[in-house]
Design a protein that fits this description.
By secondary structure, the chain is of the alpha/beta class. The protein has 13 helices and nine strands. It has one domain: Metal-dependent hydrolases (TIM Barrel, Alpha-Beta Barrel), CATH 3.20.20. The strands form two sheets. Strands 1, 2, 3, 4, 5, 6 and 7 form a seven-stranded parallel β-sheet that branches. The longest helix has 19 residues.
Length: 334
């Protein structure tokens, strides 16, 4: 059984940046190593994907990696992950490209050279690139700048993540972009209808593009009654997608935050009217822990065990735990 990889380590970056700001000697802060990696390892993780939105955020993570005495390894591709020293933790970076770097096509080449492995277009709302899943005025789609960005991404070794976007934007992306696509953290709309979850047609479309879909532990996307959400409810989503497309298109995109109070403004921004159960204070409450039985990252190994109980083979469980994501990453760099 290989190491588990969380392909969306959610609000972790907010915790890292905040503690670097308030640390007496911020230049020596080791937030990942001291606060997050022990819990990740307890849950069987050997790697995680952390989101970045600007050069200074990349610099902050690289500084923590350099000071970790080899415990953290920056992974630019599959080989970096597979060949890292025993006991070390592999850290991948994904760009939230809808933020300060939106429209900077030349920057994509530098970011790919640095080792950023994926590009995200939206965080629920309309932006310079596309329409998000929480826009009240309809599904929208990609802007001219967003379309140009998609085309430029075909020239660099960086994966395209269609998470957070409206269904109109999703189908736009498939029409414009010819490469592999994935969705880092979403569940099945057929199990629980929510704008953040994927329809069966979307799930099949991702699979047809050789992509993966990361199971999202955020309770508000698992169940219509988020406070009662359980690991079994999350596995219902997994099994629905498994029946549609197989284990080779499933992964783990566990969206946790050890300090959800730091995300209050972010959650209100992406859901200003509370329409998705994320903003207006409710999101903070349900972000404090994952579904019952998988409350935080230290229990992520329970996903594999639960899938095995539902009938998946060990080979299939290994695919969900990280192998499916690594294969996709390998194709991008081949």
């Amino acid at each position: 059984m290989g190491d588990v990889i969380n392909i969306y380590a959610g609000g972790v970056i907010h915790d890292v940046l905040y503690r670097h700001l308030v640390w007496v000697d911020g230049g020596k802060a080791q937030v990942l190593r001291e606060r997050h990696v022990p819990r990740w390892k307890e849950g069987g993780l050997g790697g995680a994907v952390v989101q970045v939105a600007a050069y200074d955020v990349i610099a902050t993570l690289l500084s923590e990696i350099d000071r970790s005495e080899g415990e953290l390894v920056f992974c630019r591709n599959r080989a970096d992950f597979d060949q890292r020293p025993d006991g070390s933790f592999g850290l991948f970076m994904s760009l939230e490209g809808h933020a300060t770097m939106a429209g900077n096509l030349d920057a994509l080449h530098l970011l790919a050279e640095i080792g950023i492995t994926a590009f995200t277009f939206s965080h629920n709302l309309q932006n310079l690139l596309c329409t998000g899943c929480n826009e009240r005025y309809g599904d929208g789609g990609f802007t001219h700048i967003g379309k140009a960005t998609l085309r430029e991404l075909e020239t660099v070794p960086m994966m395209v993540d269609l998470v957070h976007m409206s269904r109109g934007s999703f189908w736009d992306a498939l029409d414009i972009y010819d490469g592999d696509l994935f969705v880092s953290h979403s569940n099945a709309a057929a199990v629980f209808e929510h704008p953040r979850n994927l329809t069966d047609d979307q799930i099949r479309a991702v699979a047809e593009r050789n992509g993966v879909i990361g199971l999202n532990t955020f309770r508000g996307y698992v169940s219509a009654e988020p406070r009662k959400a359980t690991l079994s409810d999350l596995i219902d989503h997994a099994m629905h997608m498994y029946d549609l497309v197989g284990a080779e298109h499933l992964s783990i995109g566990a969206d946790y935050s050890s300090a959800p109070e730091l995300l209050h403004n972010v959650l209100d921004f992406v859901d200003p009217e509370g329409a998705q159960g994320v903003g207006g204070g409710e999101g903070i409450e349900i972000y404090h822990s994952g579904p019952e039985g998988i409350e935080d990252e230290s229990k992520l190994d329970k996903i594999g065990a639960a899938l095995a109980e539902r009938g998946l083979s060990q080979e299939e469980v290994d695919l969900v735990n990280g192998e499916s994501y690594l294969r996709m990453l390998d194709r991008v760099h081949s």
